[in-house]
Specification:
The chain is α/β, with parallel strands linked by helices. It is 41% helix and 14% strand. It contains 14 helices and eight strands. Strands 3-4-2-1-5-6-8-7 form an eight-stranded mixed β-sheet, with helices on both faces.
């Protein structure tokens, strides 16, 4: 990204709820308070942590996000904590450290940075607007001419969305789309993709849109018919569910006794996975689930930020 990274507007979701459930004002009283933001993004939540002089380890697979986070956190630091900016995406500046990496490797990252045990953990699994609308990522169907890429980490990931569409067997494609779509619609899409690629390989967003326009996908009235297929493809490209399944237990291990882990999810597949992992941790007596039902944004927040409407927050506390 070029120019001033903070010219864009990004609105983090459920900020008050995250601060409350992670006991941020209470742990801020400790001189060694630490929180790991496993998906730091544009640092909307982490800015609130560093304002309270809590040390933050921020991790993200997207280098563009880390550049933005660096500027946001530098401005958020109380006087006396700012240091001279550095050009590397791996930045340590007083109250915060930023690391380019994937949260599936969270234990190694925390160990390398000597940043454990911690008081709190946050996973915000949503994407920022600049990621969704970026004309060179192909994540959004609003950019028909964009290459079908969808990788969040274009340095360490090699497989693009187009690669999956052009190479996966039909059964694998059905499985891919079934993560967020019902089986009937997944079969429809997979069948059309296999037919289409025999004539022309997939390269751009418009190539996929032309296939989806022929499938007549059933969908919720509040969603565009393209939304869920694009979401399923992005999840597969970035191995999002597999990585989350690896990351949450590792993160729980890094918590202090009494520490809390919070996850904000945005679709049913993520939420089911988080709920399942939390139940397992509670069933063996090492965790206490603090959110019997997921916390959702208040009406006021949804009106101000419509993208927040699908957000769900779940929190667990470490007992031992």
């Amino acid at each position: 990204m070029e120019g001033n990274k903070v010219k864009f507007f990004h609105q983090p979701v459920l900020v008050e709820e995250v601060l409350d459930y992670l006991k941020v004002d209470k742990i801020a009283l400790s001189k060694k308070a630490r929180i790991i933001d496993a998906t730091v993004g544009a640092a909307g939540h982490s800015a609130e942590f560093v304002k309270r002089e809590i040390s933050v380890l921020g991790i993200d697979a997207d280098k563009d996000s880390l550049e933005i986070a660096g500027e946001v956190l530098e401005r958020a630091c109380p006087d006396g904590h700012q240091l001279v900016p550095v050009s590397s995406p791996n930045q340590t500046r007083g109250l915060y450290t930023l690391v380019h990496g994937n949260f599936k490797d969270i234990k190694k990252i925390a160990s390398d940075k000597d940043f454990y045990p911690v008081d709190g953990f946050l996973f915000d699994l949503g994407l920022a607007s600049y990621q969704i609308t970026s004309p060179d990522r192909g994540i959004s169907f609003a950019e028909p001419g964009a290459e079908l890429d969808m990788r969040l980490d274009r340095e360490n990931q090699s497989v693009k969305a187009s690669d999956l569409l052009n190479s996966l067997p039909e059964k694998k494609l059905v499985s891919l789309f079934s993560e967020v779509l019902d089986y009937r619609n997944s079969v429809k899409i997979a069948n059309q993709i296999v037919k289409a690629r025999k004539v022309k390989i997939f390269k751009t967003v418009s190539d996929l849109l032309s296939v989806l326009s022929k499938t007549k996908i059933g969908h919720k009235k509040t969603l565009s018919p393209e939304t869920l297929p694009f979401l399923a493809l992005r999840i597969a490209v970035n191995s999002e569910l597999e990585n989350l399944e690896k990351a949450i237990p590792q993160s729980f291990d890094l918590l202090k006794k009494g520490g809390r882990l919070a996850v904000i999810s945005f679709h049913s597949g993520e939420d089911r996975l988080v709920k399942h992992i939390f139940k397992n941790l509670a069933s063996i007596g090492i965790g206490k689930i603090l959110t019997k039902k997921p916390i959702k944004p208040k009406l006021e927040e949804i009106i101000e930020n419509p993208r927040s409407r699908s957000a769900k927050l779940r929190v667990i506390e470490k007992l031992s």
